[in-house]
Write a structure and sequence with these properties.
By secondary structure, the chain is α/β, with parallel strands linked by helices. The chain has eleven helices and twelve strands.
Length: 302
């Protein structure tokens, strides 16, 4: 099956915008962006945009018809909202569905996935995958799971990898020796295009890849070399960090799940497989890690 007509849901966010740009640049693919009827999102000139009522099955089916593949970039906290998309996609005759995934663990990784999401608290991704697999097993639709590890360039800006760029401080979890596979947003976008242009290789499976494999001390060394200064370092027992975050989650803080996720990713026991063993994409990121860190540090370096 050749993939040609793509419907992109969520084409203006952190990951959606670079994916839109990458698909647009691929001459063998056509892309249309789907937005809510009341959306104020803007897109590059020439972008084809459809609007639909996300709460209406009929509206979604009408919007999906004529597209062989849907790539969804719904936010993680709203991942469960993709279930109506999946049902509408089947009725509309869509062949392939890419759910929001992009995580450090693939929803197809077996029983450990349920435990992982129980601890983090974001169950939507897994529930959507289970429905997709059920439909795929029945021959009604195909799926591809994009499994990229944490967003590296985004994570630098927002402290997810443990660096506070503005204050030149680093938080090291445990010994810091955990190896974590991470990906830049532009590399993720290119990987998505590769899977779209290689449909048999990406059919009904998780596609894993990374831009770099990092440890926190090695990343800190890069930052210190660029800034020419020693950074303040705080070492935190990762178990304590996870426990505090889990308590916050139980208390009703929806964003505490991201802290649980962060702790599990940087836990050197690597129970959930943050150190990927196989790269399914046959090309490397063309950006050096030093250049990405330097770009992120620009606003804070005199």
């Amino acid at each position: 099956m050749a993939i040609k007509n793509i419907l992109l849901i969520g084409g203006s966010g952190n990951v959606g915008a670079p994916i839109l740009a990458a698909i647009t640049a691929e001459p063998s693919l056509n892309v249309t962006v789907l937005t809510r009827e009341d959306s104020k999102s803007t897109f590059p000139p020439g972008t084809v945009v459809k609007k639909a009522d996300y709460k209406s099955h009929e509206s979604l089916v009408a919007a999906f018809k004529g597209h062989d593949t849907i790539v969804s970039n719904i936010a993680t906290l709203a991942a469960i909202d993709q279930l109506p998309f999946v049902e509408a996609a089947v009725e509309a005759g869509v062949t392939r569905f890419y759910p929001t995934e992009y995580g450090s663990i693939a929803s197809s990784d077996g029983d450990i996935v349920q435990e992982f999401w129980d601890r983090v608290g974001f169950h939507g991704k897994y529930e959507v995958y289970l429905r997709l697999k059920e439909l795929a097993d029945a021959g009604k639709i195909e799926y591809t799971l994009i499994t990229s590890g944490p967003f590296f360039d985004w994570g630098l800006q927002f402290g997810f990898v443990g660096l506070n760029l503005k204050e030149k401080k680093a938080t090291i979890f445990g010994s810091g020796n955990q190896v974590v596979a991470v990906s830049n947003l532009s590399h993720i976008a290119k990987a998505v295009v590769w899977t779209l242009t290689h449909p048999e290789e990406s059919k009904n499976k998780a596609i894993r890849f990374w831009s770099y494999k990092i440890t926190q001390p090695s990343l800190l060394a890069v930052a210190e070399k660029i800034t020419g200064t020693k950074w303040e370092v705080e070492n935190i027992p990762v178990g304590d960090y996870i426990q505090t975050a889990e308590e916050g989650k139980k208390a009703g803080n929806p964003y505490a799940g991201y802290q649980v996720l962060q702790g599990l990713i940087f836990d050197e026991q690597d129970k959930y497989g943050s150190n990927y063993k196989v790269n399914d994409i046959p090309f490397e990121d063309d950006r050096k890690i030093e250049d990405v860190v330097a770009e992120a540090l620009k606003p804070f370096v005199n």
